[in-house]
Design brief:
heterodimer, A: 198 residues, alpha/beta, Glutaredoxin, globular, B: 239 residues, two-stranded antiparallel ribbon, 8 helices, 31% helix
C-alpha cells in the first residue's frame, strides 16, 4: 500500500487542461502532488478521455468546486457493482448532449472495499483499465473519481441511501436537486440532466 | 310432435332473449345517481373476519417490528428451515454473498463476531439471496466457498427473495439483529470501517454494539445504519 496522503490526487492520464485542474486541486493540499516525484502519467487512453483520480472527501469537495458554476451529476458506482456498470452507457449517452454545461462525476467505490488490495495508484489503474476494456467514451466533461475516505461523509453530504448505484444531481450551488436510488434508465437519466438545468 | 319440439325450443330460449334484452344498451354509469347513495353491502355475520391485508403480510419489517417466525429458507442440503427453529434466541441475519468483494471482505470480521457471540447464545445465519449465486440447486460453489473460507455460520438460501424482500435487504452485507422475543432490533451495516484501514480500536462496530445491548436487554445505541456493499440481485431481475 502506498502512503495515503489526505487530499492527494493520483493522476492516471489527462489532457493538459485537466492535468492543470488536478494539479491545482492537489496543490491546495500538497504542492508536491504533481511535482517531479509524482507517478509518471500513463499514456493517454482514447477509450476514456477523462481524468481518473483518487481523492479523499475534502479532495472531492475541491474537485466539485473546480467545475465552476456548473451543475453536476454524481453517479456512485464501482467496477464490482453489476447494475452500476450496466447503467453507465445510458448515463454517458444522456450526458453527451449537455456537453460541458453539466459536470459529470463517476464516483467510484472501488477503494471502499475491505482489504481491496488496491492503493490509490493501483486502484486508479484498475478503474482506468476497466473503462478502457469496455470502450466507454467519457468525454472531457466526465471525470472519474475514486473515493478514498469514510463513506459516511458521502452519505451525509449527498444524503445517500448506502447501496449503489445512486445518482445525485447538484445545482450550481452544490445543492442536491435530484436523485435516483438504484439503477436508472436512459429516460430517467435524461430527466436528471434536465433537472440539473433548472 | 315436430311443432311441439319447436314450441319447446322457443320456450326454452325465451329467458335467454329476455336476459339479453334487459342488458342496457349503454354501460351503467360508474357513479351512482346523485341523491341515491349506493346501498352499503350488508355485513354477513357468518362470513369469516377479514385477515390482515395481503400487502401487510409483504410489508418490510422495520426495527421494532416482530419478525414473522414462519419465514423459511433452504439450507445447503436443500432442507427447509424456518426462523421458528431458533425461537428464544438472539439471531443475527447477514445477507451474504460469495462473489461480492465487500461481503467477502467482511467475512473475517463476521467470523470473529460469530466466534465472540455464539458462546453467548447468538445464532449467526448467513442468507444468500443473490439470483446468480443460488440458481444452481446443488449450491456447489457456495459449499466450496464455505469449506475454503471455513465459514462458521449457518448458510441459508432465500430462493425466491421472500426473506430479502421482507427485511428490505439491499446489500451484501446487510445485517439484521432479532432479539430473543422475535423483535427486530437492528438493521444496517457491520461497522464504520468499510476499507479496514482504521486502527482496530477506532472502529465503531454497529453490530457488536447492537448485540451487546440486546443481550443486556437494552436498546441498541444505533438501531439503524446505512448498509454499504453490493446490491442484492433479485431473482428475476433484468440486471
Amino acid at each position: 500500500m502506498s502512503a495515503r496522503r489526505p487530499g492527494a490526487l493520483i493522476r492516471s492520464h489527462a489532457s493538459r487542461a485537466t492535468a492543470a485542474i488536478a494539479c491545482a486541486i492537489a496543490a491546495a493540499f500538497f504542492s508536491s502532488a504533481c511535482g517531479p516525484k509524482a507517478p509518471t502519467a500513463a499514456p493517454p487512453a482514447p477509450a476514456t478521455g477523462g481524468d481518473v483520480v483518487a481523492v479523499d472527501f475534502d479532495g472531492l469537495q475541491q474537485l466539485l468546486a473546480s467545475g465552476g458554476a456548473r451543475a453536476t451529476v454524481v453517479n456512485c458506482w464501482a467496477t464490482w457493482c453489476a447494475p452500476c456498470v450496466a447503467e453507465l452507457p445510458d448515463l454517458l449517452a444522456a450526458a453527451a448532449p449537455w456537453g460541458e454545461s453539466v459536470q459529470v462525476v463517476l464516483l467510484s467505490y472501488d477503494l471502499m472495499v475491505p482489504n481491496s488490495g488496491f492503493d490509490r495508484v493501483s486502484g486508479v489503474a484498475h478503474v482506468k483499465r476497466f473503462l478502457e476494456e469496455r470502450k466507454l467514451a467519457l468525454g472531457d466533461h466526465v471525470r472519474v473519481v475514486l473515493y478514498d475516505d469514510a463513506v459516511s461523509k458521502l452519505d451525509d453530504r449527498f444524503d445517500l441511501p448506502g447501496p449503489i448505484p445512486t445518482t445525485v444531481v447538484l445545482d450550481r450551488a452544490g445543492k442536491v436537486v435530484g436523485r435516483e436510488r438504484g439503477a436508472a434508465t436512459r429516460a430517467r437519466f435524461d430527466e436528471l440532466f434536465s433537472a440539473s438545468a433548472k | 310432435m315436430h311443432r311441439n319440439w319447436i314450441a319447446a325450443t322457443l320456450l326454452a330460449l325465451t329467458p335467454v332473449v329476455a336476459l339479453a334484452q334487459s342488458k342496457p344498451a349503454d354501460p351503467a354509469p360508474a357513479k351512482p345517481p346523485q341523491g341515491e347513495p349506493a346501498p352499503k353491502p350488508q355485513a354477513d355475520p357468518a362470513a369469516p373476519k377479514p385477515q390482515a391485508k395481503p400487502d401487510e403480510a409483504r410489508k418490510p419489517f422495520v426495527v421494532g417490528n416482530m419478525v414473522d417466525p414462519s419465514l423459511s429458507f433452504v439450507d445447503l442440503e436443500g432442507k427447509t428451515r424456518t426462523l421458528k427453529e431458533f425461537a428464544g434466541k438472539t439471531i443475527l441475519l447477514d445477507f451474504w454473498s460469495i462473489e461480492c468483494p465487500v461481503s467477502k471482505g467482511y467475512e473475517a470480521r463476521l467470523t470473529q463476531l460469530a466466534n465472540d457471540y455464539s458462546s453467548k447464545g447468538v445464532v449467526f445465519l448467513a442468507i444468500n439471496a443473490n439470483a446468480g449465486e443460488i440458481a444452481d440447486d446443488t449450491y456447489a460453489k457456495i459449499k466450496d466457498y464455505v469449506k475454503k473460507e471455513k465459514v462458521p455460520y449457518t448458510i441459508l438460501i432465500d430462493k425466491k427473495n421472500v426473506v430479502a424482500d421482507r427485511f428490505d435487504a439491499q446489500t451484501t452485507p446487510h445485517i439484521f439483529v432479532i432479539d430473543d422475543k422475535g423483535k427486530l432490533r437492528y438493521a444496517g451495516g457491520v461497522d464504520d470501517d468499510e476499507t479496514f484501514k482504521k486502527d482496530a480500536k477506532a472502529v465503531k462496530s454497529f453490530v457488536r454494539d447492537a448485540l451487546d445491548a440486546v443481550l443486556a436487554g437494552k436498546e441498541p445505541p444505533q438501531a439503524t445504519t446505512k448498509p454499504h456493499g453490493c446490491s442484492i440481485k433479485r431473482v428475476g431481475a433484468k440486471s
